[in-house]
Amino acid sequence: MFWNGFSDAQCGFKAVSAEVRSAVVPLIENRNWFFDTELLLLSERRGYKIKEIPVGWIEDVESKVKIFKTVYEDVSGLLRLRFSKAYREINK
C-alpha cells in the first residue's frame, strides 16, 4: 500500500532526531498502537532514513493485547493515512 523500505513497524524500539520530532511527530494523528507505523511512514515519506537494528526481545506470554481491536485500528490507520492530506502532500 505504501511501498515502504522498512520491514516491521510494530516491533522494537523507536528513536528519532530532534528534527524528526519537530517535523513529523506533530503530523501523527494516532496515539495508540498505530503511532509507530504512522511515525515511520511519514518520516520515510519526508525523506528521513529508517535504520532497523535488531534487539533481543523476551515475549510476554501474559500480554493483554486485544488482537482484533488492534488489527482494526491498524487497518483503519493505514487507510486513513494513505488518503490523508499529510501523506499525499509530502513529496519524496
Write a structural description.
- This protein has 92 residues and is mainly α.
- It is built from four helices and no strands.
- The longest helix has 16 residues, at 67-82.
- The mean pLDDT is 87.
Mean pLDDT: 87
The biggest sheet amounts to: none
Low-confidence stretches: none
The helix count comes to 4
Query: What percent of the residues sit in helical stretches (DSSP H or I)?
Result: 40-55%
Radius of gyration: 14 Å
Overall SS class: mainly alpha
Shape: globular
The strand count comes to 0
- Strand % is under 5%
Task: Summarize this structure briefly.
With 92 residues, the protein is mostly helical.
Layout of secondary structure:
Layout: H1 18-23, H2 35-45, H3 67-82, H4 85-88
Key descriptive features of the protein:
40% helix; 92 residues; 0% strand
